Amino acid sequence: MFEKTPAFSGFSVDDIPAAKAFYGDVLGVRLSERDGMLVLHLAGDAGSTRDTLVYPKPDHVPASFTILNFRVGDVDAAVDALVAKGVTFQVSDWTDERGVQRRYGPPIAWFTDPAGNVLSVIQDQGTG
C-alpha cells in the first residue's frame, strides 16, 4: 500500500529555538521552519535529502533510544569537532573515556540534544 508513498520521521523537543541553534549552528544541519516547527534537511544516499520534522511538545519526554545516527568517516575526528563546540558525550562502562564504544560493531559515540534526545556519530565502515 505505501511502497511508493513518501514518508518522513519526526521527534519532539521542548524548546524549538534551542533545537534550532543546536541542529543548525552546532551540528551544521540545513534546516527550515514551518508552522512553529523545524524541518531538518538531512543528507541521504546518492545526494538525496531526508527531511525530519522537529515539533514542540510542552510535556516532552526525551527519547530513551538513539533517534538520529550521523555516519562519519572518522568518529574520533567527529567527537573532537563536537567537543570543541561544547557537546558532551556519554561515558559509560562500555565506552572509552571520550565516550566512544569500540567493543562491537563500528565505533560509535552518543550525545544528547538540548531536549535530552539521544543522537550518535557512528563510523561508516565504508568511508573510515
From TrEMBL:
It comes from the Bacteria. It holds the Pfam family Glyoxalase. InterPro entries: Glyas_Bleomycin-R_OHBP_Dase, Glyas_Fos-R_dOase_dom, VOC_core. SUPFAM superfamilies: Glyoxalase/Bleomycin resistance protein/Dihydroxybiphenyl dioxygenase (SSF54593). Residues 5-124 form the VOC domain. This is Glyoxalase/bleomycin resistance protein/dioxygenase. It comes from Pseudonocardia dioxanivorans (strain ATCC 55486 / DSM 44775 / JCM 13855 / CB1190).
